Amino acid sequence: MISLRNYRLSQLFKTFKISSFSSSPSFSSCNSLNSFKSHKSLPPILNPFKIHSRHIKTSICHYGRFVKDQKRPEPKTKRPEDFAVLGIREPICRVLESKFNIRKPTECQKNLIPTILQGKDLLIRDVTGSGKTFGIVLALLNKTRNQQICMENNENNENSENNNYENYYENNYNYSKKPCITSLLTVPSRELAYQIENWVRILLSDTGIPLKSIIQVVARTDSTDESQQIHDLLNSPPHILVGTATRLHDLMNGKYLNFKNLKTFALDEADHLFRLPRKHATLKDIQNRQLHPKPTELLAQYIFSQVRPQIIVSSATLNRSLRYYFKDNKYTENPVFIDISEGTLSPPTIEHHCLLISNKEIKNLTSVEFTWYNPFIDDRLPTRNEEFGDDDDIMLDSLVGAIELENIKCGLIFVNNQIKLTNIVKRLKKFGVETKELENSFLDKNIKGLPWNHALGKPTHKLFVAHEFTARGIDIPLISHVFILGMPSSSIEYLHMSGRTGRMGNGGKVITFIKEGQKRLIKTLFTLLKVNPAPYPFIQ
């Protein structure tokens, strides 16, 4: 008895006039599968495309050979929001989800990663916590490794005297390819540099690739560590070199750096690295700047004198003067300008508070009524309370009170650059508050000493103390609170200090403690940043 399946196949072969079930049947009446689909003579019950459509597609091969039926595996479709669609390799995508708990890129990363991989010059501006630095690192990791051709003298060649001039170089020199620095990432602080190295260490943890062959950090530390940096740099040039501007300038003067094969030159927090004169700077300031350029300027001149690499400029406060600086110096060619901030300076998920401290009481800034000082109308100077400093016990006591009232997952305490962090840590310990210097956390060579423990999924300490200038780019997950002790040096620095919380769309709270005499200055700062500080609920 013939089976139903064989009966259907026999009807199919009769339709196509296939002579037999041989391994190489000949198709005489149909040359394509589409014409077979248009055949309507078969009854519905015997129509193979309603019953065996998937088998027919896999059975009819290029050579007309009939193979055994097997179901073709469905291809894995990539979602539009995946990192793989942007050009990130699959092993890195898996680590992003398993160890960083990141499943899809931010809006900023969707735009910058493909542009970097295409080799275009790029200018990026977005709010703090949008993943600019992390996106740049991911893109640089996925760029092709550059190699340089080295020519070594073959001194052991005994027949070199008999060689003619044409074969001299071929017989006396060996040509080999050696890896070289493909990308250079310049950052404003060594804390940020070591944080980037830690990111790459985690991303490559399952690959078995030596970390120093992929990324190396050069920064000013102790003499022993700096000597080791030079040794590693000369013996094993990395794929990505991350360094501070001052340390790179030192290595440049020592002729330890060769950028002839450099492909990408990235500048993170570029406005801080260049620190161009202000818009209304005096002629004297401009002349002094021309006589004493910043290390980043000298580094850029040195690189572009050797090669024309792709340039990436990133900052949350990337201003117009800096964009024109790169254009006027011909560092960029038709750059892509990505501005996702749309005029927003501070993330809307951050809650801002400001407290005025005096010898007698603590007040909310919003509860203070005062008029703006106008020097053309009022001859009196604005009053200032200079009886105590930013690290006085009155300020620390107010800080400790706020820490006790808040439910802190992880917090950052920022102080003035002139204040010693070790003294703040010791004095806060007397108040019963345990803290750790953020700088020492990143300089600890043991990965367990870093401020974030990826194995446990939580920060290593509850509170960290840091200087104002280290705020740029530092990313510690689950930062819920930022405490600013004293008047910020500028509105831009306040923006970057407050931006350590409220990252990646999460909420956060920023509490600033200033002296009562500085209320006009802080009010102007908030006005420039378009920030409306809310009343602190525990203070009248």
From TrEMBL:
Highest taxon, organism lineage: Eukaryota
* Record-annotated Helicase ATP-binding domain positions: 113-336
Which keywords does this chain's UniProt record carry?
ATP-binding, Helicase, Hydrolase, Nucleotide-binding
* Stored SUPFAM superfamilies: P-loop containing nucleoside triphosphate hydrolases
The reply on keyword ATP-binding is yes
Ranges for domain Helicase C-terminal: 395-540
Picking any one GO molecular function of the record gives: nucleic acid binding
Would you tell me the protein name for this molecule?
P-loop containing nucleoside triphosphate hydrolase protein
Q: Which organism is it from?
A: Diversispora epigaea
